[in-house]
Design goal:
By secondary structure, the protein is mostly helical. The protein is built from eight helices and two strands, in the order H-H-H-H-H-H-H-E-E-H. The protein has a two-stranded antiparallel ribbon. Strand 1 and strand 2 form a beta hairpin. Helix 1 packs antiparallel against helix 3, helix 4 runs parallel beside helix 6 and helix 5 packs antiparallel against helix 6. The longest helix is centred in the middle third of the chain and has 20 residues. The chain starts with a helix and ends with a helix.
């Protein structure tokens, strides 16, 4: 997958691209001088340029960025799914999403399917107050972008020291892998919300 294909499949195919909430969400990753005069095409060019800068900064191609996205989401949810001898519904879907993420060939529809499954699971985790889940709602209607993005920003990982944690994602550099992961997630969530 190339950045251009991703931008065309998400941003240029999204119906309400110049809505204020959309631009405000994207402004977290791409800074605008004037938010009043943004068109669909101008923003698409900015997104494409941004992904190119991320590739240069991280010395990797877009496929590696998507693989990093998969890896991060897999790690976040891996410990939240209840496991049993007779697989739970959540376990079956989690394994299906992980198998999509391990595919050698990156396709946009696979990215959409993966994100839908994982973010529906993530919504169940947030509603269940981070306890293990065995059931979840797979409908797109359950996806609340604000909840997902808020909780993703709050994710932590163990740090050096006893009972110390640090943020999972570092947002200080707009061209970092972490910022790119959240930009990919934001664009795919908007696309899912738009109805594919």
């Amino acid at each position: 997958m190339k950045p251009k294909e991703f931008v065309e499949s998400t941003w240029l195919d999204y119906s309400d691209v110049i809505g204020d909430c959309v631009l405000m969400d994207l402004n977290a990753y791409i800074k605008f001088q004037f938010i009043d005069h943004i068109t669909k095409e101008v923003m698409a060019e900015k997104l494409y340029d941004h992904f190119m800068m991320v590739e240069l900064f991280n010395k990797c191609d877009f496929n590696k960025l998507v693989m990093s996205y998969y890896k991060s989401i897999n790690e976040i949810l891996g410990s939240q799914i209840a496991t049993s001898k007779q697989k739970t519904r959540a376990q079956k879907y989690y394994e299906k999403a992980v198998s999509i993420s391990k595919s050698k060939e990156l396709k946009f529809q696979d990215l959409m399917d993966y994100t839908r499954i994982m973010m529906c699971l993530y919504m169940a985790v947030t509603k269940n107050q981070s306890k293990l889940i065995s059931e979840f709602d797979l409908s797109k209607e359950c996806l609340d972008m604000d909840t997902i993005l808020t909780f993703i920003h709050r994710e932590t990982v163990p740090a050096l020291g006893i009972n110390k944690r640090k943020p999972r994602f570092d947002f200080h550099n707009p061209y970092s892998m972490d910022s790119c992961i959240l930009l990919i997630l934001t664009l795919v969530l908007y696309k899912l919300r738009d109805g594919e």
